[in-house]
């Protein structure tokens, strides 16, 4: 009766036009699979010759969680019959080519076999394969070539299911049984033989992909698959398969898994396993653990020895793929997947003997070369894969700096186990610095804006750039920060200053401004890392060089360049006061030199604030003023001014608040003015504000429409003791005087950081 109800519910689920009936059927079927006795009912439904395909599929998928969790299937008296029944049904599905049903049945069979105590752990693989062979014979998969292919495919899928069942935390078993099962599976030679046999079969791509997935799954057990270190021909075949159009992705993942199995598991760690922590690590036997570590080293040396020939084959494949972007993407993604794992394994085994050290160093170099090449590919997916490779490599190098007491404060997952470097890397310091220099150059090249972008995209507002360009810049900028952190921020900043000076000279000589803008953009990424509480000569020199470049870039005719320069200038508030002492000494030595940089910068800021024709540029200038005025020492330098420049700054901010700024920017402008007030004192700020409002303002200023008495009253209100103590009151009165927000107008505030 229950089976009839199940069939009716399945029929309603698949054929009923009523959504309510389908939903009710789904709820009933979920409940049916958890009822007492569901195991036997589902087995009966699966074995029923009259069952439809979707009925068998439901029974198979419902049996899997029961096999993983329930005690009934693994009871010593019930387990042999359960395994026999499942093996028969799996063989029948495999013989019929119904892998949608066969794979969940194989998972249920593997879960029962791994959990049950009826079979010693070391007999799991041979016993299950023998049982499968008998079941396939009974299902009619005899001795012809198609039957041999079916037997091999069934064995491959069952072996994958055994490894997954032993590693998955969804499979409930005693920890000792899990550890014994994993160790026994890791020592079994049958999986590698099955992979070898499947790859030798021609014209069976699906079987070959399944075999490659088996190899990848088997590596999750922890140690390398038994016999892998001696299977040089198979390993080379796998490397070549990674360049095959049909097998490339699966082969690359399998080879990456082999490299991953070469990484040691310090302290019995299980990080990195798909089961979130159940790798076999050999902690139960020191002898076994030492043997596994030796096998890891031997396998890594063998794999790295294949990489020079693989690099040649990859180069040939890329040459043949010229004109086919999709093929190039496939090749580069496969190579990055493999070589990223190779670099990680090489770093984890950096203490190999001298004969193996050069091989692992070459592996890291080859991975870096391919990743540098991929950084220039126009396809965004390839760029992301290359950036991910570099992020992981930089993380290991930064972890080395942290462990070794370096300047970097970042901690990486690779430093805490799970195949990390443990304080070593495969390449020396000199080679690492060379690679970092090449990486920074490639990243800068990728961040440079294209010359063909339309003018409407090249405004002072970074949000006007096309979304793909913004996305590339954000992703590349994150990796660039990590690279400069590893290279050393002071060294990176000095190199960027030299590069920016060269790019600026080229621009002023008639070249494009894009490289200059990119250099300033990159300099802004690393400038915030300088937080020197005790200014030294180099910091003052760097601040002077950067300020000179910013002053040259603040040109209204190139709004994108000017906007980037304003962003950098706003981030230099802490270092700009260093210019005062430096320029005073230079003025004493060279009295006839041009205007000092700091007043020159402030004058340029005022000019940009007054760019009523470009509200985006004036908005950036107002934001920069706010950031500069927020730094008290810099705001205090305005005391040195006789009044004209300070008055101009105040007037520029007032004009911006009056027209060029959206209403929400009045808050930033008011905050900047209030900070300047606190820095320069009541008398000087009062003189500047009165001069700006009552004497210097243009006819189109909102307050010029008022009578003289009203203007004087507004200035008196702004300078009142209440406003001096309450910045919010000052802001409200400033909005009234500058026109404020018009009724019915709605302006969305941009996202923070844009």
TrEMBL record:
GO terms for biological process: protein import into nucleus. Residues 270-291 are annotated as: Disordered. GO terms for cellular component: cytoplasm. Signal peptide: none annotated. InterPro entries: ARM-like, ARM-type_fold, Importin_beta-like_NTR. Gene3D superfamilies: Leucine-rich Repeat Variant. Residues 270-289 have a biased composition (Low complexity). This is Nuclear transport regulator (ISS). It comes from Chlorella sorokiniana (Freshwater green alga). The lineage of its organism: Eukaryota, Viridiplantae, Chlorophyta, core chlorophytes, Trebouxiophyceae.
